[in-house]
Amino acid sequence: MFRNPWFETVAEAQRRAKQKLPKSVYGALVAGSERGVTVEDNITAFSELGFAPHVVGQTEKRDLSTTVMGQQISLPVIISPTGVQAVHPDGEVAVARAAAARGTVMSLSSFASKPVEEVAAAGAPLFFQMYWSGSREAMLQRMDRARSAGATGLISTLDWSFSNGRDWGSPVIPEKMTVKAMARLAPEVIPHPRWLLDFAKSGRIPDLTAPNLTPPGGEAPTFFGAYGEWMQTPPPTWEDVAWLREAWGGPFMLKGVSRVDDARRAVDIGVTALSVSNHGGNNLDGTPATIRILPSVAEAVGDQVEVLLDGGIRRGSDVAKALALGARAVLIGRAYLWGLAANGQIGVENVLDILHGGLDSALRGLGRSSIHELVPEDLVIPPGFTRTLGNPLPVREY
Ligand SMILES: Cc1cc2nc3c(=O)[nH]c(=O)nc-3n(C[C@H](O)[C@H](O)[C@H](O)COP(=O)(O)O)c2cc1C
């Protein structure tokens, strides 16, 4: 047990997660692909940006609240969807409770380990995330279920490229948690008694199924079974995505946009929001950091749809930088997963508090009274920082 369960930075949450989790579970959170260029650039790029602070004239009170897809949130940070099967016995329910406690949105992956009904009961505003996987009928049924449970927004993640190699090695994840699989994992698990103890106390074993993909009257598929279905589904066209948006009929976010021409197509099919995202660097390695791409996408479509960013957010100051470059809000992935691993629901609240505090401090330094006042001039942007992908029209370069 750590003497003080509270941690002061996301880096410390990561250290604790590494100490607490079996190697494969921690490895699944680190994720990344190929050389890891993108996963690293997502972080490095934020550190290349500086601030231009004021010395006098800061404001006493600062407003961090905004809305995303119609949901009022107390800070411009929402939970990004992730499948967190074996991190913590309470999984996505703990994350949703933390989101509710801190006044933000919970986004639930269709590959998550907890049923959408249980996650909705936590009381946070809820977005449901789907891949383009299975038949249209199955997709309609999954959307209906999420809607009935209380999801108000749909996130369609379309950037996955099924990259499966990592130079540093991929984690070993069993198909099912059978006694045999557990025995095989024992040498990894035994040195991490606290992780095992948390599961033992909950009376559960890590559930490697995807209960939100259960067919009517059927059983929840295993994570790999669901992955197989997804791999075999032909990739969608823009017309398919337009169908999905129409079928959902409510606020709709396209997650995974890098190119300006794609952003414009997304506007054309009527999305409510898009997230400039490279799936946290888990996809096509070599895609630039999202913060480098954000200004071009925000300038092209930011007056027509809500532009969000995810990838590499580890500090409140990172949130300030993203907002200054045109994001309405950001989504976080690994940061809350590490918090969850370190200290369950309280650990996720701890991470949201770190980001809240860091953003507030950045606003104070910059002499801003609201997140809506942040502008590129608040930053020191090195020459050649930005990247514009796939854009035939001129956009502002830094
Ligand atoms: C372990 C892990 C699982 C993920 N699972 C999903 C998922 O099921 N659906 C999805 O849209 N994105 C998924 N993502 C991507 C995240 O939603 C988000 O885009 C990414 O983590 C942001 O980068 P960050 O981790 O640096 O914050 C996953 C990411 C990680 C690290």
From TrEMBL:
<feature type="binding site">
    <location>
        <position position="109"/>
    </location>
    <ligand>
        <name>FMN</name>
    </ligand>
</feature>
<keyword id="KW-0285">Flavoprotein</keyword>
<dbReference type="Pfam" id="PF01070">
    <property type="entry name" value="FMN_dh"/>
</dbReference>
<dbReference type="InterPro" id="IPR000262">
    <property type="entry name" value="FMN-dep_DH"/>
</dbReference>
<feature type="binding site">
    <location>
        <position position="157"/>
    </location>
    <ligand>
        <name>FMN</name>
    </ligand>
</feature>
<dbReference type="InterPro" id="IPR037396">
    <property type="entry name" value="FMN_HAD"/>
</dbReference>
<dbReference type="InterPro" id="IPR013785">
    <property type="entry name" value="Aldolase_TIM"/>
</dbReference>
<feature type="binding site">
    <location>
        <position position="129"/>
    </location>
    <ligand>
        <name>FMN</name>
    </ligand>
</feature>
<feature type="binding site">
    <location>
        <begin position="310"/>
        <end position="314"/>
    </location>
    <ligand>
        <name>FMN</name>
    </ligand>
</feature>
<feature type="binding site">
    <location>
        <position position="277"/>
    </location>
    <ligand>
        <name>FMN</name>
    </ligand>
</feature>
<dbReference type="InterPro" id="IPR012133">
    <property type="entry name" value="Alpha-hydoxy_acid_DH_FMN"/>
</dbReference>
<feature type="binding site">
    <location>
        <position position="166"/>
    </location>
    <ligand>
        <name>glyoxylate</name>
    </ligand>
</feature>
<feature type="binding site">
    <location>
        <begin position="333"/>
        <end position="334"/>
    </location>
    <ligand>
        <name>FMN</name>
    </ligand>
</feature>
<feature type="binding site">
    <location>
        <position position="255"/>
    </location>
    <ligand>
        <name>FMN</name>
    </ligand>
</feature>
<dbReference type="InterPro" id="IPR023989">
    <property type="entry name" value="MftD"/>
</dbReference>
<feature type="binding site">
    <location>
        <position position="131"/>
    </location>
    <ligand>
        <name>glyoxylate</name>
    </ligand>
</feature>
<keyword id="KW-0560">Oxidoreductase</keyword>
<comment type="similarity">
    <text>Belongs to the FMN-dependent alpha-hydroxy acid dehydrogenase family.</text>
</comment>
<dbReference type="GO" id="GO:0010181">
    <property type="term" value="F:FMN binding"/>
</dbReference>
<feature type="binding site">
    <location>
        <position position="279"/>
    </location>
    <ligand>
        <name>glyoxylate</name>
    </ligand>
</feature>
<keyword id="KW-0288">FMN</keyword>
<feature type="active site" description="Proton acceptor">
    <location>
        <position position="279"/>
    </location>
</feature>
<protein>
    <submittedName>
        <fullName>Mycofactocin biosynthesis FMN-dependent deaminase MftD</fullName>
    </submittedName>
</protein>
<feature type="domain" description="FMN hydroxy acid dehydrogenase">
    <location>
        <begin position="2"/>
        <end position="384"/>
    </location>
</feature>
<feature type="binding site">
    <location>
        <begin position="81"/>
        <end position="83"/>
    </location>
    <ligand>
        <name>FMN</name>
    </ligand>
</feature>
<dbReference type="GO" id="GO:0016491">
    <property type="term" value="F:oxidoreductase activity"/>
</dbReference>
